[in-house]
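Incident review: delayed structure delivery

Summary: a single-chain prediction request sat in the queue longer than the usual turnaround. Root cause was a stuck worker, restarted by the on-call engineer. No data loss occurred. The affected request and its eventual output are reproduced below so the record is complete for anyone auditing the incident later.

Affected input:
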Amino acid sequence: MKRTRGIPYKWLALLTVSIGTFMGTLDASIVNISLPRLTQVFNTEPSIVLWVSVAYLLVGVSLMLTLGRIGDQVGRKRVYIAGFIVFTLGLILCSLSQSILQLILSRVVQAVGSAMTVAISTAIVTAVFPDQERGKALGILAGVVSAGLLSGPVIGGILLDALDWRAIFYTRVPVGIIGIAMAWTLLKEQRDPNAVFKFDLAGAATVFGGLSCLLLFFNLGGRLGFVSLPALALAGAAVILLALFIIFERRAAQPIVDLSLFRNRLFASSIISLIVMFVAISSNMFLMPFYLIQGLGHSASKAGLLFATISITAIVVGPISGWLSDKVGSRVLCTVGMALVCTALFLNSRLSIKSSEVDVLVRLAIQGIGAGMFSSPNNSSIMGSVPRDKLSTGSAMIGTVRQIGMSCGIAVAGAIFTGRQAFHASQLAGNRLAQPMLEKLSLVGGFQDTLLFGAIVCSIGILTSLVRGKQLPYQQNSHQQYE
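Output delivered after worker restart:
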């Protein structure tokens, strides 16, 4: 195995990819905390400012599968570096924006770059690590994803209070430049020299349109109602476009997604389990800050530190779980991990206005342990089920499913929470409570009911994890072409 300054290449590649993965997943959540400030700065409506986040999500998720397939064909290093450059350029443009329209368009640039790096990252790591170490490596990468997703509000809040909204973007430009330099000098190209690039235009157009309509359906449905006319129109368009995508992919010589992968029970059940996991935990990710700040009265910074318990425990458990999956497979670990997350969500649904910080910490730690135990083996199962010439497609599938699950989960959780909060407020109205107490109790009641829904959804994931197929045999030397 080749070494650079005594460090095996596979670890240098993992470190390089981790920077891009952290930057990309961090950006999905770090901006949200600045939306109220942006409403004031640009003197515009919240519904307009919301597109700073929505545009990023729509473009990133809709392009990820296409970019993953391009990476398999033209070279993963090439796409990854290009993505990092575009992402960093987007950061600069965001920090220089003088209007809300400029900021939204700059976020679109960012989203394209983020989609390129996230779509390729897991494939690069899978290709350079031997199969018997794949779980351990992807466990570390899964911990980075958790850290990025959950630390966004904490880092964003600190930057917003200490500096200004532009700091959320320009302070990360140096990290982007370092990441580009590392990728340029350390990564080795991964590409089949005999591959002939053929772009699946019909598949790319229909998957972009279908996923965009699907995410807009969840976004608008959560605010206007899922049976409102705009939401129903978007749902219909999503169904039609995604159906066309499947038809085109079955006929394409080089499809964006090889649909035959879903005939593999291990791959299919791992994908289903992944989307169930993120739909379930999104209710907690979305509502726990409301509970901690408005329900228990904690400050935003303290709530952020409590919430960080999930990412800290996931980062610790993820690599251990991945290492174990290399030895014993994914079925038991994923099932136990999903069961722990389900337990944590149920316990969270029993929290009240009298719960202590220890009560919260224990529950969040259980969720973090469960998420870390599930994610690494599950991602390893997905990547181990994908042919090596389609690793970027598998990597992009993980990123796409993760974002769709989160979007769906947050939209549904928001709708349930709004309805149940109003129900509890009407039930408590006759108790002659002071208005602040009435609002607090109704908020906690809505929080409890929504988290119970998350636990029920998560129980489905226990079953899908349990019935997954057996792990495929290792191919001991399949990684050596990239070392």
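Verification: Residues 472-483 have pLDDT under 50 and may be disordered.
Action items: add queue-age alerting; document worker restart procedure.
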